[in-house]
Design goal:
alpha/beta, Rossmann fold, 183 residues, binds flavin mononucleotide
Length: 183
């Protein structure tokens, strides 16, 4: 197999918060080859996902409707599947609003999680509470593996929460050293 590139952070956004979180994740990963990609770019004819296969794919979505993932995942998720399957590691994040949408907080993350698992990929990582918010009580089902983040109300807490999540999932390997054995 061809050598894998570093990290792809693939996301969708409507009002830009998920793009900001994707950028924070890219900043926190200490690999020189890290790419962020907005799935809405695929709405433009002839646009392609970044080429190659990646050591790490981090996939993210905001939550819209009533606990839905972003519609661009609905439209283009199938094109991401080969990248998810060929990655050594996959991690997920989802944005939401725990106060305004308590009952469906970060529901998009669950949809993304189910999609990835259905594609035969097991995402890494312990479920994490959002930085300042909390998963509403009672939680109807266990939260999926991934970072549920309430970014708009907690921008300042986000970089630290992202660093903690990355080290919980990747250990000391946030630089994605090539010599580390594939999990
Ligand atoms: C119409 C609308 C519906 C939303 N529905 C939910 C929801 O069901 N659950 C939730 O946690 N957040 C919900 N949100 C909050 C968004 O997920 C949150 O603002 C997110 O940061 C937006 O990300 P973006 O800027 O990347 O588009 C909703 C926001 C809007 C405007």
């Amino acid at each position: 197999m061809a050598e894998r590139r570093g990290a792809l952070i693939v996301y969708a956004t409507t009002s830009g918060a998920t793009a900001e979180v994707a950028r924070l994740i890219a900043d926190a990963l200490r690999h020189p080859d890290r790419v962020t990609f907005d799935l809405r770019n695929l709405d433009v004819d002839a646009t392609l996902l970044p080429p190659g296969q990646f050591e790490l794919v981090v996939a993210g979505t905001p939550t819209y409707g009533k606990g839905d993932w972003h519609s661009a995942w609905q439209r283009h998720g199938g094109r991401v599947v080969p990248l998810l399957r060929s990655a050594a590691r996959v991690m997920l994040f989802g944005l939401g609003d725990a106060r305004g949408h308590a009952a469906t907080f970060a529901g998009g993350l669950r949809m993304l999680h189910d999609f990835v698992v259905e594609a035969g990929v097991r995402p890494l990582g312990p479920p994490q509470p959002s930085p300042a918010g909390r998963v509403p009580d009672p939680v109807p089902v266990p939260p999926p593996a991934g970072l549920a983040i309430e970014y708009r109300r907690n921008r300042r807490a986000a970089p630290e929460a992202i660093r903690e999540w990355l080290s919980a999932c990747l250990g000391d390997d946030v630089a994605l050293r090539a010599e580390r054995p594939v999990i």
